[in-house]
TrEMBL record:
Residues of the signal peptide: none
Protein keywords: Membrane, Transmembrane, Transmembrane helix
Originating organism: Pseudokineococcus lusitanus
Membrane spanning stretches: 20-53, 65-86, 106-127, 139-160, 166-184, 191-208, 214-234, 246-267
Protein name per the record: Uncharacterized protein
Length: 269
C-alpha cells in the first residue's frame, strides 16, 4: 500500500500580500473618486476597520480587542467627521468634493479624533484586567495605530478639489507597493519604488484634465519614500509574514500616503 503524495503548500512571498491589499485599496479609492464619489467614504471606512482589526495583532500587543476598538474609533471618527455631508440637499457623503468643514475644519476634526483616541488609549489600559503587562508598549502601539487610521481621512480631503488628485496619488502608492513585492533587497526596491511612483503619478496626471505632470511626479516620489519606509519598518516584524496579517502593512502605507496627497491637493488644486 503506497502512501499518497501530499502536494507542497503554495508559499506566498511575504511582501506580496501587503502590495496586493494596498493596491486593491488604491484602485478602489481612484475608481470611487473619479466615477462614483459616494463610495469614497465606504471604502475608507472599510480600510479603517481592517486596519483596526489587524494592527494590534501585527504588533502582538496585549489586549488586542481594546486596542482595535480605540483604533476603529479614531479611524471612523476622523473619516466620518471630515466627510459628513455635502451642500444642502446632497445627502450624507454624497459630495466629498464639497466638504462642509473646509480645510481648517477638517484638520480640526482629525485632531479631535486623535485627541479622543489618546484618552481612550489610557482608559483602555485602566480597564485592563490582565495585570497590564507591557503597558508602555501597549499605549504606544495603540496611539500609533489610531494615528494611522485617522490619517485615512486625508483621502477625503484630497478629493475636495476633485477626484483627480486622489487618482494620481493612488496610482503612485500602488506602483511603489508593487515594486516592494519584488524579491530583491529592500535598499533596491526602495529606490525603484520612488522611481515607479513618480512615473505612475506623472502618467496618470497626463491622462487627467487639470493636473500638471511635473508636480504630480514630485508627489509620486514622496509617496514612494513613504511606502518604502513603511515596507522597511513593518515587514521586519515577526508577524508580518502571516498571510492573515501582512495585508495590514499595505493599509498603513495607504493611510500615511494620504498626508502628502492631501497637502498637494490643498496647495495646488
Amino acid at each position: 500500500m503506497t502512501a499518497t503524495a501530499v502536494p507542497p503548500a503554495v508559499r506566498v512571498p511575504p511582501r506580496l500580500l501587503p502590495a496586493l491589499v494596498g493596491t486593491l485599496v488604491c484602485a478602489a479609492l481612484a475608481a470611487s473618486a473619479l466615477l462614483l464619489p459616494v463610495l469614497l467614504l465606504p471604502v475608507l471606512v472599510l480600510a479603517a476597520l481592517l486596519l483596526a482589526v489587524g494592527w494590534p495583532r501585527l504588533l502582538a500587543l496585549p489586549s488586542p480587542r481594546g486596542t482595535s476598538a480605540v483604533v476603529a474609533v479614531a479611524g471612523l471618527g476622523a473619516v466620518g467627521a471630515v466627510g459628513v455631508a455635502g451642500p444642502p440637499g446632497t445627502g450624507v457623503g454624497a459630495a466629498p468634493a464639497a466638504l462642509p468643514l473646509g480645510p481648517e475644519g477638517a484638520a480640526e476634526a482629525v485632531l479631535a479624533a486623535l485627541g479622543l483616541s489618546v484618552v481612550l488609549a489610557f482608559l483602555h489600559q485602566i480597564l485592563r484586567t490582565d495585570g497590564r503587562p507591557r503597558l508602555a508598549e501597549s499605549v504606544a502601539g495603540t496611539v500609533t495605530g489610531a494615528a494611522a487610521a485617522a490619517l485615512l481621512a486625508g483621502w477625503v480631503g484630497a478629493a475636495a478639489p476633485g477626484g483627480e488628485h486622489v487618482a494620481v496619488g493612488a496610482a503612485g502608492v500602488a506602483a511603489a507597493l508593487l515594486v516592494t513585492a519584488l524579491p530583491w533587497p529592500q535598499r533596491l526596491t526602495g529606490v525603484l519604488g520612488v522611481a515607479a511612483a513618480a512615473a505612475a503619478a506623472a502618467v496618470v496626471a497626463g491622462l487627467l484634465p487639470g493636473v500638471v505632470a511635473v508636480p504630480a511626479a514630485v508627489v509620486g516620489a514622496v509617496l514612494g519614500l513613504v511606502v518604502g519606509g513603511v515596507d522597511r519598518l513593518l515587514t521586519a516584524l515577526p508577524r508580518a509574514t502571516s498571510r492573515r496579517l501582512s495585508g495590514v502593512v499595505g493599509l498603513v502605507a495607504v493611510a500615511l500616503a494620504a498626508v502628502p496627497v492631501q497637502l498637494w491637493a490643498v496647495v495646488a488644486p
